[in-house]
Automatic annotation (TrEMBL):
Keywords: FAD, Flavoprotein, Oxidoreductase, Quinone, Transit peptide. GO terms for molecular function: FAD binding; quinone binding; sulfide:quinone oxidoreductase activity. It comes from the Bacteria. One of its GO terms (biological process) is sulfide oxidation, using sulfide:quinone oxidoreductase. This is FAD-dependent pyridine nucleotide-disulfide oxidoreductase. Residues 6-298 form the FAD/NAD(P)-binding domain.
Amino acid sequence: MKDHVEVLVVGGGSAGLTVAARLRNHPNPPEVAILEPNTKHYYQPLWTLVGAGVFPKEASERNEADFIPPGATWLQDAAESFDPENNRVTTRAGKTYSYDFLVVAAGLQLDWEKIPGLKESVGKPGTGVCSNYDYNTVTSTWDNIRNFKGGTAIFTEPSTMIKCGGAPQKIMYLADDAFRRQGVRERSRLLYCSPKKTIFAVKKYADELDKVIARKGLEPRWEHELKALHPERKEAVFTYPGGEVTMPYDMIHVTPPMSAPDVIKKSPLANADGWVDVDKHTLQHTTYKNVFGLGDNSSLPTSKTGAAIRKQAPVVAENLLKLRAKEPLGASYDGYTSCPLVTGYGSLILAEFDYDKNPAESFPFDQSKERYSMYLLKKVGLPNLYWHGMLRGRA
């Protein structure tokens, strides 16, 4: 591989592959190289259903090589530093690549270590600590749910930005359903501990989710954030305005704090919060005009979801190609994102909204209502759209 490439895409996840595919599908495609160290690619939205016993985790896994777009070069390495002043990226293996255009789609990182007691206990048998947020721990969620004999089950959400903002609550609704099927719900408490003050940011969907919570007898603990675990005693420490409380648990599903990858945080591309600093409509970097950012590592003020990436990727591809042709940028992103809120086995509220938290729904019915059809969309339709449409640059 030569040291210079026309378009360098950093990250071969959902965002990187989708943009690369769209660029290569163009009638006059640019030369594209994708910098990605991992040999496996995961459809992470499926992990909620894996954690609920609907799918084996292997259903979410594919070979990265199968989704590198035709004509693109795969650099199986990771970014170590960015030098946008000189249009260069240095890799973990010590190689330096220069570029004409850079697309930064490096995802985010899970900061397990920020909660004492979490990293060493999550996914380990006997601890009761589980999480759907990692391929290596997701099956521990189902192990805990199906072996639950009653007691206290806690579900947490951090105050940081996270991928799939609805996932921390979705597994709680499924666990409630599972406990009822197993005959242990009557002797169980399900607590939802969140630093927020409401269940969802868009009122239309929050109102319906409040009804779900009431119907299921779930117990929200608003403005409560997990700060430490004592797995040997099965105790969780939460902070709340004005104090701290220790709660015992029999099972705890933890959504870890998340942040931009360290390589982004320490780079000139980052804003004060560590995210790739881009214009929220054009997705062009605010300082370096030949750089674009999208997906979970971006500063975009919207939920970090695959559905958001599906709308961001065409904007990045079109605007990059316009810049390449020395034409004005024409594509604009309105902040669209989607959160398929599974409320049980066979029911789902499909939340879709924009930057202004206005519903932006795709179907000719009220999507705030729980529907079996939308559950099937989540279970069958969206995975197929992802593998065969989105990653191929066709949807």
